[in-house]
Design goal:
- This protein is mostly beta strands.
- The protein has one helix spanning 64-79, and strands at residues 3-8, 11-16, 30-35, 38-45, 85-93, 101-110, 115-122, 128-136.
- The protein is built from 1 helix and 8 strands; from the N terminus they run ββββαββββ.
- The strands form 2 sheets. The protein has a 6-stranded antiparallel sheet, with helices on one face. Strands 1-2 form a two-stranded antiparallel sheet.
- A hairpin with a 2-residue loop joins strand 1 and strand 2.
- The longest helix is centred in the middle third of the chain and has 16 residues, at 64-79.
- It is globular, with a radius of gyration of 14 Å.
- It starts with a strand and ends with a strand.
Length: 137
Amino acid sequence: MPYLPFCMNRAIIPSVMTEGALAHGVLPETVRSQAADAVELEVEIPAECDYFDGHFPEMKLLPAVAQIDLVTLYAARYFGVSRAVKSVRRFKFSEKIFPGTRVVFSLSFNREKATVTFKLTDAASGTAYSSGSYSAL
């Protein structure tokens, strides 16, 4: 099985790709819009997704590191950048993402600066979950 590492603060989290699903059981994305250096995707994060395992048993939440893992996965897929994070410009986590949520991933890539900017919002309400930017290797 191929592994795609997500690196941040020297930590590596393997993302296992499987047929018909993304890393950790996330369902395949739907492209809402796409340009050369921007993409908007809709993704369902099912309750069965193992990102929720142990985080937290009494109230399952999608961990921040899982959100970044997915952002780097989509940036690699749509912009051809490495999944390794060179430096973090800013990350802001505003609201909790619960199992079964449909999330819109809005990503853009500045090729000159090798910077990925992202925003995660609720597909139904538009509530902002997280945003930020980072420099890719």
